[in-house]
Amino acid sequence: MSQLKSKRNYLLIAVAAVFAYFYHKDGAVTTSVVSTAISFGLPLALAAMVGIMCERTGIVNIGIEGTMLISAFAAFFVASTVKSIIIGLIAAIVVGMLAGFLLALMAVSWRMDQIIAGTIINILATGLTSFLFKQGHTLPSAMPEIDIPVLQNIPFFGPVLFMHGPITYFGLIFIVFLWVALFHTVWGLRTRAVGEHPGSADTAGVSVLRLRYLNVTLAGAVGGIAGAFLSLELVGSFERGFTAGKGFTALALMIFGRWNPLGALAAAMFFGIAQAVTNQLMIDQVVNIPQQFVNMLPYVMTILVLAFAAGKVRPPAAEGQPYEKEQA
Amino acid sequence: MAPLLEVIGVSKQYPGVLANDDISLTVDSGEVVALLGENGAGKSTLVKAVFGLLRPDAGEIRIKGEPIVFGDTNAVIGRGVGMVHQHFQLVPVMSVAENIVLGDEPRRGGLLNMKKARAEVRALSERYGLAVDPAAMVEDLPVGMQQRIEILKALRKEVDLLILDEPTAVLTPQEIDEFLNVVRVLASQGVGIVLITHKLREVMAVADRVVVLRGGKVVGITTPKESNEEGLAQLMVGRSVVLRVNKGDAHPGKPVLTIKGLEVRDDRKLKAVDGVNLEVLSGEIVGVAGVEGNGQRELVEAICGMRPRAAGEVLVGGVPTENMHPHAVHLSGISHIPEDREKHGLVSSYSIADNLVLNQFDQEPFARGWIRNAGEITKNAHVLVKQFDIRTPSIKATAGTLSGGNMQKVIVARELSQDFHVLVAAQPTRGIDVGSIEFIHKQLIAARDRGAGVLLVSAELDEILSLSDRVAVMSGGKIVAVLDATGADRAYIGRLMAGLHD
Ligand SMILES: Nc1ncnc2c1ncn2[C@@H]1O[C@H](COP(=O)(O)OP(=O)(O)OP(=O)(O)O)[C@@H](O)[C@H]1O
Ligand SMILES: [Mg+2]
After folding, report:
1. Three-state SS string across B389-421, please?
2. What is the ipTM of this complex?
């Protein structure tokens, strides 16, 4: 453990040193790269939270991709049709919760194979969004950026952390909140017990099925917000296949973060940085290699660095197994 | 006033077994009812039905006159019922305190108050004389400690009805005495208690009434006053049982197991076995006596290749065995009955037949080259199921569907049926009924007489003294004395175990 921690600390120090160096060389560009990194990392982090909330209760959710895709779609089309960003966001949350509830229904009540259940959600989302998609919609307005007074004036950290859209702030706060909830509240203790050894929870009077339904549905809402972030706040539009595998990347980040919200946040932000740096390199035309390789770069960097830092991982023990009372 | 618990005509059918067959019984407040029966008689099934863990097919269960909804554990808990489960219901990756408070957690504001939880656990532990460390992780703990946690979990809440499903299977005699006192005190305060146990001494000591099950039916109701241990055993098994161990003299030969300067660390990296030297000769049983947590578990695991040996050697027939390689150690001639049967003894989702060849699956005759030989595996299973009296409707049933004692029999059967030079047996008769204990003890002695060396670890000093030829006393990770078992002085051994050397 301590060895792992020191490895992580070295990594943090190294990353910080690199940025200090670049900030010293070119403050404006470095600031914008890091700020972009947060915008790139956030949807992945939120998607990873969906995975954590589900898997910590023992449900594997590979339908995150579909959940995000269909909520991004709902957010964009509702917002552009009724001309309200807020209603678009609410639509995304509702659609996300429906996707979560559907997963719970299949995985918890019908005891379906959870990989298949998740795949159904992904196929459903791809099919529906392709079918319903129409060109020519635009958002009524861009999602407003909220600059936090005073804090935004801190050099480097001000623009990086305190000049974002509302969903970014919500997302970052939510992740910290989820960490506290998971490790320091009654809900968290019960959630983890259900994901590790549902019999213990059941015999202690905790309803395994109810908690699984609750968590998977709430996780769907978070997936909805992640989708809304993409179409309303980050990009401001929607296209077919809009989420481009973010839901799957998030599962990997969840594992790298060891099913811990802060760990997954760190992993997602590292990925965001890798992506933002790559983008900047392309803009500056520093590298002259085919586009495909450039696109690979964030994935390769993330795998290399996190494989070094992650150490041994152990998923929740009851993951993927439907709970049957009689086996208790 | 209605009795505290009424079970009326309860039946439960499992595939191929009628586990409960029209069972009726009552428990009054302040009464201790012992539920006796062979392995697989249906005791756990019945109490699980009462606790809302399974749905019977017929019958009714009333608590304080009100029928319960089958399968609603939470409601049953709400009616003032607590239960100690035969299969521990503990979350391995959580702390002792977290496990004990789960379901009824102390809070402060919206947050979990772990400080209060730990204090509560310490107080509980002192009050009932069951030592536990609230901050330890359950997965690092030996089974005896897990048993104490399971008991404390049930004692934490004020209950009216307490169900105890084999609460003492791996406790030491002192802990059992203390626990029986707790049971008496609770009963005197008006708590109704259902006690399932295979230890007839406990039944004689605390029960007000004894209900005996066989084949899912109630076959007798009696009281300790009207009966004795032999009578109860006979009622349970349906034949007379020899409760004492009869064994001839040992004829020890050459050393088969040699432990030299062994040092082993526990899960917290502390030295748990500290320079142990021990020889087990062919044709003798060496018992390891000790208070749990003095390195017995680590010693056994290191011998069997399941835990790194920090220093020292383990030789079988003079040949060094490989460190940290259980399969190689097994091939060198060591059979092992592990203390934690669910973790190390069985794969509960595999069939009984597969579990019976779990460490020989790749050897003749159970495999030819890469191909498994289903015929031999099946034949082996039929033979062992019959010989060891494993109660199951089919050898294809998964091990997880067996009753606790029958799971233990599967492990014992597998390990005893192989060729071995050395048998390392940790709690070999845990949860086994008196009839089968007699059989397993005979098998251990037969193995000895065939020329094997047996290393026996048990929480029961009686079991050690009656089976062993020599007794090694372990304390603080060291073997502090090796004595002849015949005529050994229990009090002296007790003092050695407590670390009081002369
Ligand atoms: N989940 C299950 N599926 C199928 N059969 C089961 C299941 N649980 C128990 N049984 C069967 O029901 C019978 C009674 O089992 P039970 O666990 O009640 O026995 P028990 O009296 O508690 O025995 P022990 O003393 O060994 O604990 C056994 O034959 C067992 O194989
Ligand atoms: Mg039982």
Report:
1. CCCCCCCCCEHHHCCHHHHHHHHHHHHHCCCCC
2. 0.89
A94 Cβ contact partners less than 8 Å away, ≥ 6 residues apart: A74, A224
The per-residue pLDDT for A328 is 41
Three-state SS at A277:
helix
Q: Show the domain range for A215.
A: 45-132+164-260
* Joined tokens for residue A123: 């196929």
Q: How confident is the model at residue A301, as a pLDDT? A: 74
Q: What average pLDDT does the structure give for chain B?
A: 93
Q: How much is the mean pLDDT over chain A?
A: 88
- Kindly state whether residue A298 falls inside one of the protein's structural domains: no
Residue with tokens 């863990």: B53
Would you call A72 helix, strand, or coil by DSSP? helix
Q: Are A79 and A88 in contact (CB under 8 A)?
A: yes
**B322-359 residue pLDDT tens:** 998 999 999 999 999 999 888 899 999 999 999 999 99
- Within a 13 Å sphere around the CA of B326, how many CA atoms are in the beta-carbon half? 14
**In sequence order, which residues have a C-beta less than 8 Å from that of residue B32 and are 6 or more positions away?**
B183, B184, B187, B193, B195, B206, B207, B208, B209
What is each CA distance from B177 to B129, B130, B174, B183, B488, in whole angstroms? 10, 11, 5, 10, 22
Q: Which residues in chain A are contacts of B107 at CB distance < 8 A?
A: 186
Chain B residue whose CA is closest to A1? B268
Domain assignment of residue A115, yes or no: yes
Select from B337, B333, B317, B282 the least CA-distant residue to B448: B282
Residues 6+ apart with CB under 8 A from B342: B87, B348, B407
Pocket test for ligand 1, best of B401, B430, B432, B437 (most atoms within 8 A of CB): B401
Burial B399-435 (b: 16+ CB within 10 A, else e): bebbbbbbbbbbbbbbbbbeebbbbbbbbbbbbbbbb
- On whether the CB atoms of residues A68 and A243 are closer than 8 A, the answer is yes
Residue A24 DSSP class: H
User: Is residue B315 pLDDT above 50, yes or no?
Assistant: yes
Q: Which of B24, B305, B341 is nearest to B166 (CA)?
A: B341
The helix (H) or strand (E) run that includes residue B112 is strand B111-112
A219 occurs within a structural domain: yes
List the shell of residues around ion ligand 2, using CB closer than 5 Å.
B 44, 86, 403-404
In 3D, which of A243, A296, A302, A242 has the Cα closest to residue A272? A302
- Give residue ranges with CB within 6 A of ligand 1: A 326-327; B 14-15, 17, 19, 37, 39-45, 86, 391-392, 401-406, 431, 433
The yes-or-no verdict on residue A313 having pLDDT over 90 is no
Spatial separation of the C-alpha atoms in residues A143 and A164, rounded to whole Å: 10
In whole angstroms, give the CA distance from residue B108 to residue A186.
Answer: 10
Domain count, chain A: 1
Contacts of A227 (CB under 8 A, 6+ apart): A67, A68, A69, A70, A71, A72, A73, A74, A75, A92, A95, A96, A243
Reduce the DSSP state of residue B465 to 3 states and report it. Answer: helix
| A91 found inside a domain | yes
What pTM value is reported for the model? 0.88
Q: Is A295 on the interface with B (CB under 8 A)?
A: no
Phi, psi of B147 (to 5 degrees): -60, -40
Assess whether pLDDT exceeds 90 at residue A33: no
